[in-house]
Amino acid sequence: MTIDEPVDVRAAGGVVWRPGARGVEVCLVHRPRYGDWSLPKGKLESGEHPLRAAVREVAEETDVRAVPQVRLPTIRYRSQGRPKAVDYWSMRAVAEGGFQPDTEVDEVRWLPVDEAVRLISYPHDAEVLAGFAALPPVTATMVLVRHGQAGKRGIWSGPDSGRPLDAIGWAQAHALGELVALVRPVRLLSASARRCVQTLDPAAALLDLPIEVVGDLDEPKPGQQPEECVLAAAARLVELAGAGEPVAVCSQGKVIPGALERLTGRADDFATPKGGGWLLAFTGDRLLAADRL
Q1: CATH number of this structure's domain 9-133
Q2: SMART domains in the record, alphabetically (predicted)?
């Protein structure tokens, strides 16, 4: 199928990895219905975000809890005559349960990447493995989001920093909370505006974490140079990445694009809608990937 052809079937999955005696091992599943070896994946449920579906399907098929890190190539093909697209992420395994064979998946194998490429049944899955193998080691994962919708500035009578989320903004915050929880952050950091803190409230409730208010993530104040705020935010993100632990950060629309341009070294389209965000992966202090949520 062509890239611009409408998709009838959406699915998501992951290249799940763990350290092994012979280096990095990835997880393949055997499906008795098809007699094949493939990457764990499955169809999206109604209204489900692809990233959430990927983590869920990996857990259901392998009994592995995994943290998404970097988006991998999307695979497009025809399944039973219908155009299908599968989104993949690299995922670090953080917990394994007791896998029980069933009619969908009857065997799970952990293999070095080169052995997995030889065993896997489909060339398009081998392409995804090749994309994974080309990645440098990911040392830190971060979710960076923009606050949800907060009404119109012109009709809010108080200070702008106190403007709260509206009904749509709260719905966006709850949707973001589920995505934030997927990376299992150990810290939640927010710009000082009320709407930013509120955007992380659902994630804080899910994860039982406090929200740390950080002025380095704020938009420019009157008389302040925008570049000053961009540099401060970018420096804060690099500092957080250097700790090597997953975190979630909420900032503002006049900060996020410039900070990502600074970290990537390229003038790309980093405009971020309200309630939108990015999955960031770092290798050391270098931003390896910025993938839209």
Answers
A1: 3.90.79.10
A2: PGAM (SM00855)
